[in-house]
Structure formats: structure tokens, C-alpha cells
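Review form for a predicted model. The reviewer records the input and the model, then writes brief findings.
Reviewer: anonymous (R2)
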Amino acid sequence: MVRSLRRAGHSVTSCVHRRREAMNRLAAEGVVEAPDPAAVAGASEIIVLCVPDAPQVEEVLFGDRGVVNGVRAGTTVVDMSTISPIASQGFAKRLGSHGVRFVDAPVSGGPIRAADGTLTIMVGGDREDVTRVEPVLRAMGMPTHLGPVGMGETVKLANQAIIANVMLGNIEALVLARRLGADLDKVRKVLATATASNYLMETWLPKTWFAGTFQGGFSMDLLRKDLAAALEAARAFGFPMPATGLAYQLYTHASAEGDGALDYSAIVRRYERDGGTSKDNAR
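Model under review:
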């Protein structure tokens, strides 16, 4: 994502969050390294963060050397993490007391689309704030303004609930088909022309399960974190999500068995173990 910003001509100052490897690569490509988020804020007109969850957003924004310790009034913070919309609204309110604007802009598309600057970007915030940061977002992908602060996260969590459940549907049905003796290559070709056709079966699974690897992709533990955020938001509004609740439990069980760092399609390993059809030991 930083490389996409550089390709578009933006100057970038960045700091390490947990691991130095990416920063070392980017520093060699002209990205200026700062010691902490406060220093990044002092050097920036627009501050972008993309970290795993709300506690890390809290740390980056309000920690001892967080953004608020170096930011100038009038600056806009763009949070591209996937977190609860309720948390986003809280961060926006707290930053507002410092004269800082806030936009939530979570992304979808995975590492490949991040690398080529074609991410789907779901944006929540005031129109004026979104317009200001739009050139930065367009350097990384295709932003769509969906409403006020928190609406980007709302739509991203809807996406995550869908892919979690669709992946389970794909895996459950395909493992059953193989269990009953069907040729999966033929099954896939037929389903590609049928009503069951979907992006995960046609594009995602050929790169993971069907290719014999679960490395890279989108980790099961990150998906679990997103589902937990969706369920938290649903509880706050008294809305039941029984299918997503079950999906969360299934992915949690697979994670507890050691698959949490693998792509979430590795849920197939649990079905194969349960069904006695395990042929893939991809790691």
C-alpha cells in the first residue's frame, strides 16, 4: 500500500509498529522512517494507519508516543484497519477534541490487489474529509464513500460475514461431494456455470486448497477477529447473527487445532478430519 502511494507521487513518512522487515524494504525505496506515531503525525498532512484491531488503533493514536502527541489541528486520520464501527465512532469523537478529523477506510482484496493498487476501499466520514483524502485512497485502490464515520467498517464487516459463511458453504459441499465419490475438478467446472458459482470457489480456492497450500492469503485468526467485531456490533443493536456466530465457533475450533495462521480456507482441514477424507496436509 505504501508502494502504491509512492507510485502516485506522494511522499511518505512511516514508523514500525511491530516488525521492522517492511520498514527496511521501504526505507530503501525512499520512504522516510520516523521513530514513532507522534513523529509521523508531526511530519504528515494525512495520517494513515492499518493495524490488526481496535486495541492497536488505540495504541497508535493515544499511546505514550501516539499520534495525538504530535498531530496538528486540522489534520485528517485515515484508519484502514478492520474494527468495530462503534470503536471507529469513539476514536473519531476523541480525535475531534484535539481538532483532528477522522475517516474509516477498511479494505478488501488481499495482498495481490494491495500490491497493484486496486483494493476495494470502503469509506466512512464527513464528505469534506473524504474528499480531502480521496487522492491518497485512490492511489491504493477504488474508494467508495458509504456514509458517516463507521459506515466503512459496517460494510467491511458485512463483507467479512459473507465470505466467512460462503467459504464454509463451499468447503462443506465440496468435501461432501468428494466423500461421495465425485471428481472435484468436474464438480468445480459444473458449478462455475451453475447458481452456486461464487468468487471464492472460482478465484480464491484455486490459489489455496486446490493448489495444496494455505500459506499467504488471509489468515483465519484475522477473519475470526473480524467476525468477533461484527458480532459485537450486532449485539449492540440487538440483532441476532446465528450463522455468523456458528462460523466464528467453527473457525475458532480450527484455530485451536493450530490452523489460525493459515489462510481461512484451511477450515477444510477440520472438515476432512471430521469426515475421514484428509488428503491435504498443506502448511
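Findings: Confidence is low (pLDDT under 50) at residues 279-283.
Further findings: The chain has two domains: 2-148, 154-275.
Recommendation: see findings above.
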